[in-house]
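User: Some background: our group keeps a shared notebook of sequences we're curious about, and every so often someone picks one and asks for a predicted structure to add to the entry. Today it's my turn. The entry only has the sequence so far, pasted here. Could you supply the structure so I can complete it?
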Amino acid sequence: MDVTFARFVHALRSAGVAVSPAETLDGFAVIQHVGVHDPVLLQNALSLTFAKSREEKASFSECFDRFFHQLAFSEPPKRTMLRNVDAQAFMAELKNRASEDAQTLIASILKGDQNTLAYQVQQIAGRIHIQDMHNLREKSGYAEKIAGHLHVKELQTLAGESTGASAVTLNYLRQYITSQVREFVNTQYQLLVDSSGKKALIDAALKSNLDQLSPAYYADVEKVVKKLADRLAQQHRRRRKRTQRGVLDLKRLLRDNIAYDGVMFRLAFRQRKNEPSTVYVVCDVSNSVARVARFLLLLLHNLADLLPNLRSFAFSNQLGEVTDLFEAHDHTRAIEETMILWGKGTTDYGRALLDFRELVKNDLDHRSTVIFLGDARSNYFDPRIDVLKAISKRVKQVFWLNPESRETWGVGDSEMLRYSAHCLQTDVCHRLTDIDRFADRLINATR
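Assistant: Of course. Here's the predicted structure to add to the notebook entry:
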């Protein structure tokens, strides 16, 4: 029971239910108290112990059902395929052609003895260490190994040597065993690796360029972005707490401890003066950059407590401020409305820079940080380098994030090389890891 419960806790963590070591010990105590004879009581008791939110309760219920009903051959064979099969005559025909193990397997299927079949698969799965499965690529390998132990290849050979109804029956039995084994391995994969069945696809999407990301994955990737924001916020709160006291102030230290004959009873630290700074995010939301802009805006607005003065702007040909949208609506809806309102038209960086200067010219100062996200392709309009130069002189720092590779900067209508001369730093930004890394650096730069 200890091993089974440990595997169940591992399955819960894979399903997104956070179970701490202390809660695991509480779960052991719950099992000792309520026992395992009443599944409903056990499920309710463990749910109260482990699940802390509605989402976790739903995940717990699904994982509990899947874990304790993970038997292979849960579905019987189709009667329509075996209704004309004379079991005795069929087994007599295979007596001298098939191995004893294969005959035993076929007899169990024909009798409907699914418990024996399920137990046999569990034994095979244990011998091949299916619990060591770590990724999607390994699923097919484990399925083939289990099917091999269940004599699938032998059945295929027997079917090729048979004719008529016997060949049809043997082919169906082979397909039935293969499908049940695949279903069993898929259940194990969901328990051990990925409860949703989407993890491998999402991981692949996150490692690829965001401008190639299918809209079908937006909701899942947005959840990942929010987790990244939470992680960044926790890290920087810890750093700020550790460094809040600052450096020892020697003059005050000596002066305050004169009364104690120089013994350092009272420590004095230099007080760090935090000047409030404003971060201006200017995003190109035209088709070529919209997907990267979506997730940059989402991440930065999820860090609003660390970047309290955050103002957002979006443009394609005209530029407008969208800060109020993020304050009035949830972030997902605000992003969708931003794309609709400002994502149409031919990109004109010169016009966007002029609009931005007119909107914020009285607010920019030496504490301001300006972030531009765009490919800097001006469609051969005047790029107004002079405007960016003037902005750069007034603010603390200018960052430019470009989703294109550096090899393409300055090629065709790209003005990136001319813009970069007036930026503190320019970076390629086309993956979620790029956005995460930049946000980490930005928080440090604006403290």
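Suggested note for the entry: The chain has a mean pLDDT of 84. The chain is about 55% helix and 5% strand.
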